[in-house]
Specification:
Blueprint lengths: L1 H26 L7 H28 L4 H26 L6 H24 L6 H31 L6 H20 L4 H45 L8 H9 L5 H29 L10 H15 L1 H11 L3 H17 L2
Length: about 350
């Protein structure tokens, strides 16, 4: 009987948040977030739960603060900061392209946190079914939802041309901590709070998915067309009259001929890889999984070699010409990582 109760509590503790994470991944028709990255976010979320437990012992041992005050006011800020750290790191490295990516990865972080936290509480066999209904359908889903909010707000700010600074991250963290704190206050009956969270988070995520899909389609259409025009100019018989040709002509007075050649090769290779990456995204959205072309990893090796040879200043100066932005850097890094993994 005890074992049966423990198994029921375990299913309630783990199933809702994992099912919701799987549903979010399934709803992403572009499948931009790879499964291995979701796994690492689950792992980081679990590690942040362990770190949060250590922080709680440290605070409650050394500060004149009871557990209720800590859980309502200080714990939410500590936990949300620890959970979001991995997501901010990914954003900084251009590994998160769109709102939907931030939502899925943020939810995975919160899910990992909740799973480890619930493992700890499962050791307390005195917890009854009502408590587990609140923890499984409310607390666990809340952890995933609020961490997703942090990523969504940071990506939104960056898309408005803001630099990734602590001031950009702080509003998302504070809002997530405030929602977390409100949940811990239990202004409503615990089961009612759990039901509110369990219904509101999916509706919010679906809205984010729709908004992100629209932004992704617009980006693909505009940037693919821009890349195609640039490739056409590079192959044009009247190349010297194009804006790329005029740009290179202006550089001849300041750069040696080999540097001009490297710049031309870089522009062409970057644009070719950019078009290939966008084409793969479009095909995968249609349910087609095309094989990666042979030699793709070698092309990225050549691209990085050219970047080193030209230097950061020169690469930055080419940004307006290539119409390069954060999303371009993101999808090229994703394609490069995939090429290295498959050794093509």
């Amino acid at each position: 009987m005890v074992l049966t109760g423990w198994l029921i509590n375990g299913v309630i503790a783990f199933a809702p948040v994992l099912a919701m994470l799987g549903t979010l991944r399934a709803l992403d028709s572009f499948k931009l977030v790879r499964l291995n990255l979701i796994f690492w976010m689950l792992l980081w979320g679990g590690c942040s739960a362990v770190a949060s437990y250590g922080a709680s012992i440290l605070v409650l041992t050394n500060l004149p603060m009871d557990f209720t005050v800590y859980s309502r006011y200080l714990a939410p800020l500590i936990e949300e900061t620890l959970k979001a750290a991995a997501l901010i790191w990914l954003i900084r490295r251009n590994r998160v392209g769109f709102l939907v990516d931030a939502a899925i990865l943020g939810f995975a972080l919160g899910a990992g946190f909740a799973l480890v936290e619930n493992v700890y509480y499962l050791a307390n066999n005195e917890l009854n079914l009502g408590v587990w209904l609140v923890r499984g359908f409310g607390t666990a889903v809340m952890h995933g939802g609020v961490t997703g909010v942090v990523g969504i707000m940071v990506i939104t700010a960056i898309d408005k041309r803001q630099q990734l600074t602590p001031l950009v991250v702080a509003p998302g963290l504070l809002i997530a901590a405030a929602i977390h704190s409100a949940f811990n206050h239990f202004f409503f009956m615990p089961l009612v709070s759990a039901l509110i969270v369990f219904w509101m988070v999916p509706f919010f995520m679906v809205w984010i998915f729709n908004k992100s899909t629209q932004a992704l389609n617009e980006w693909l259409e505009e940037d693919f067309e821009g890349d195609a025009v640039l490739m056409e100019q590079l192959d044009s018989n009247e190349f010297s009259q194009t804006h790329v040709g005029q740009f290179l002509s202006d550089l001849r007075a300041r750069c040696d001929p080999m540097t001009i050649v490297d710049i031309f090769c870089y522009i062409r290779l970057y644009t070719e890889l950019s078009m290939r990456a966008k084409g793969l995204i479009i095909m995968r959205e249609q349910g087609v999984e095309p094989p990666l072309p042979p030699g793709l990893a070698g092309q990225f090796v050549e691209l990085r070699h050219l970047e080193t040879a030209l230097g950061k200043t020169a690469i930055l100066s080419l940004g307006p010409l290539l119409q390069s932005n954060r999303r371009d850097l993101w999808h090229l890094k994703e394609l490069e990582s995939e090429a290295r993994t498959t050794k093509l």
